[in-house]
User: Fold this.
Amino acid sequence: MLGIASDKDIKDMSIVMDTGLSSKNNIDFLLNGNNMPRFLASIPLASNISKKLIEFVRPNIDQFNRSFFIWTTLISGITKPFMWDSSHKLHAHIFNDQLTEAIARANLFGNLADKSDKILSGEIILEQDDPFSKFLRVVKSKSKKSGLIVRYNNGIIRKSLSTSGWMVVLSNFVKSAPEAIKIFRDKDVIERSFYVLKNSLDTDLYMCRKNMFIQNKAFIIFISLILTSHIHRVMIDNNLYKKFTMKELIKTMESHKIIYIKSDKILLPATAEQKMIYSAFGLKTPE
Assistant:
């Protein structure tokens, strides 16, 4: 796919890659292709590149002038120049979500405290294959009532939390951290919306045996994505994501219905939220 994309003369094409596609070979391929496309790549946090960049900015990222909202999430971000190799200079965007980082720390500490209490009470025995065994060490102690002491491997605990809430992105065209994270969040919305549409519209193309049926379903998917993209844009422009997810917005509007009783047509009254959504989309509330 990357080969087809990079060989085509598509001037306005941008490739957005999750960590699964952001291998060194793929990025080298894009940088050295005949028509180098614009790309934005999320780098795996386990890679040396991510670890070094995170440790480099960690002391300075928690500052007011480096914080911004992406919808309802407060993110801190720094952009640094990064030499991929001797010929290619990229923009490295490093992000920290302090809330996600704090939740990961609280969850791990809580689980370790719970595990330690159960070990000391004799409720459980720490097995070697237990996922928490790398964090805890149980030793015998005559001075303790339980006969045991639980010691924490703080070095491994710190290491396991060192990338929680962080994200590293490399790009050859996006120069600002807020723009880079916004592109990724927009991509996630489209992907989640496509997944919902695929399930609700029964758009599994492999179930079609005739070419005509495949084309019909592909057309429905195409129209659905156009509608989804428009809804997403309206929600961003009107700050609707502060109140709804896209799924919640659609669910809210589903209840505004016309009921037919014999020959009578009854329009259910619109709620305040439904009126707000109609207004955001430039529509008059039906009466």
